[in-house]
Amino acid sequence: MLLRALILLLVCMNFGVAVWWAAHREAPTPVSPATEPGVSSLVLLSESERPSLTDAVELSTAPEALSPESACLSLGPFSTPADLRRAMNILLPKVERIQYREVAAVALRGYRVFLPAAGSRAQALETARALSNQGISDYYVVTAGDQQNTVSLGIFRELENATARHDAIAALGYNPTVEARTEQVPQWWIDLAAPVDFDWQAELPGSDLKAVSAPCK
Fold it and tell me: In angstroms, rounded to a whole number, what is the distance separating the alpha carbons of residues 41 and 169?
């Protein structure tokens, strides 16, 4: 009897759960507004209207023609960007056209005195020992590179000092060479158009620049 009652109770409970699930409805989820009041919504780039080329604003115009009284010059060289920038700032409001360009230049970095390359390293070392026996201590035997087997006698900033070293070694019966040391460095020039009577030296006093006539383009 008790078992039947339990079975009947379970059947009633299952039936009740089934009826509840059948009649149950989920509460609607509140939808937040797409944007806050007064704030425009996001628009994909592909959804936006692209302006036509005819509506685009011109960002540049063709340069104006130079006056017949204009002269064109190349002014330089400037060895540092700071010097170039200073000159550009001074000249810009006073000329008709102005631009700059960078060029590669050869700069003198001093002088090297040396004895020409011997036939072998052994011969170069023998020459070095002979120099030492004659009281010359400031030398170096080059063992690699383009100057291999030469005997370096010093590097000098001033030509006068290099020449004095050359003469001292030559007096001992050797045939030294004085060679300029150079390297490529950047330089800058300013190309400008200005009235014929424009005095650029008055605008840039104390400079060691030079002006070269250039065709106006």
Answer: 87
Both 90 and 129 in a single domain?
A: no
Phi-psi region of 145 (alpha: psi -120 to 50; beta: other; left: phi over 0): left
* Torsion angle of the four alpha carbons 79, 98, 59, 66, in this order, in degrees rounded to the nearest 10: -160
Q: Give tens-digit pLDDT for 7-38.
A: 666 666 766 666 666 665 655 555 555 555 55
Contact (CB, 8 A) for 100 and 84: yes
Pair 158, 128 in one domain: yes
DSSP summary character for residue 208: -
> Are 150 and 193 within one domain?
no
Structure tokens at 94: 């006073």
Domain-located, residue 155: yes
Q: Any residues with CB less than 8 A from the CB of 143 and at least 6 apart, and which?
A: 121, 149
Q: Are residues 95 and 195 in the same domain?
A: yes
What CATH number corresponds to the domain at position 208? 3.30.70
52 lies in some domain = no
Establish if 147 belongs to a structural domain.
Answer: yes
- If DSSP codes are grouped into helix, strand and coil, which group holds residue 189? strand
**What are the structure tokens assigned to 42, written together?**
């996001």
Q: Give the chain's domain count.
A: 2
Q: What is the pTM for the complete model shown?
A: 0.50
Q: What is the number of H-type helices and E-type strands within the chain?
A: 5, 6
pLDDT of 64-90, one tens digit each?
567 667 889 999 999 899 999 999 999
AA letter at 137: S
Q: Which domain holds residue 149?
A: 108-182
